[in-house]
Amino acid sequence: MSRRRGVTLVELMVTVAVVGVVTAIGTGALISGRRGWQASENQIAIQRYARQGLQRMSKELKRASASTVVGVPADGSGHNSIQFQIAESFDSNSGNIVWSQPVRYVLGGADGEQLIRSQGGQTEILANYISSVTFARSNADPNLVAVTVQSRKTALNQRTEQINLSSEIRLRN
Q1: Distance between CA atoms of 128 and 49, rounded to whole angstroms?
Q2: Is 1 a residue whose pLDDT tops 80?
Q3: Which of 135, 119, 115 is nearest to 72 (CA)?
Q4: How deeply is 88 buried, as exposed, middle or buried, from its count of CB atoms within 10 A (0-12, 13-18, 19+)?
Q5: From start to end of 11-159, where are the E strands?
Q6: Dihedral through CA 18, CA 22, CA 23, CA 26, nearest 10?
Q7: The pLDDT of residue 167 is above 70
Q8: How far apart are CA 153 and CA 79, in angstroms?
Q9: Are 136 and 126 in contact (CB under 8 A)?
Q10: Mean pLDDT of the chain
Q11: pTM
């Protein structure tokens, strides 16, 4: 008896079908993994931007006095900008605090989603992908500024990631 070598048409079709199914499953897993990775990257980015902006504002607001705050009255309502002065030094001869030029934080920029810091004619972008920023002070404690930063970014797949960070900052006396 002679043995034939090779594969039959049925074996070849079964092999092609199995490879096709495995490829489809593998491609779906890769696409799903990529979407998850991209969502994680966006979440990390917006957290970083929001935290970066909030930390910078907190650091400077802690050095401000309630009497130098402009644009955020102590009435509990939210405002989208704040202006204040920072204590720079103490004049021992006169006994007075030397205050900086006014510092202003506001949402703006080319796309309206940048946290902007301006002082003395100089403007600095502190954070991107900031969709809103709110400052509030209550009349019960005007030395406490509540700051809320909302950061949002839309990925290439049109999925939007969003985060809200809040902080209460105590002004100096």
Answers
A1: 6
A2: no
A3: 135
A4: exposed
A5: 81-84, 87-91, 96-99, 103-108, 114-119, 122-128, 130-137, 144-154
A6: 180
A7: yes
A8: 23
A9: no
A10: 88
A11: 0.76
Helix (H, G, I), strand (E, B) or coil at 138: coil
> Rounded to 5 degrees, what are φ and ψ at 148?
-125, 130
Between the alpha carbon of residue 88 and those of residues 9, 49, 101, 171, the distances in Å are 86, 27, 10, 14
Instruction: Tell me how far apart the alpha carbons of residues 133 and 109 are, in angstroms, rounded to a whole number.
Output: 13
Amino acid at position 22, single letter = V
| Burial (CB count within 10 angstroms: exposed 0-12, middle 13-18, buried 19+), residue 151 | buried
What letter represents residue 109's amino acid? G
The sign of the torsion formed by the CA atoms of 28, 31, 33, 39 equals negative
HSE of 37, CA atoms in CB hemisphere, 13 A: 6
**Integer Cα distance of 27 and 20 in angstroms:** 10
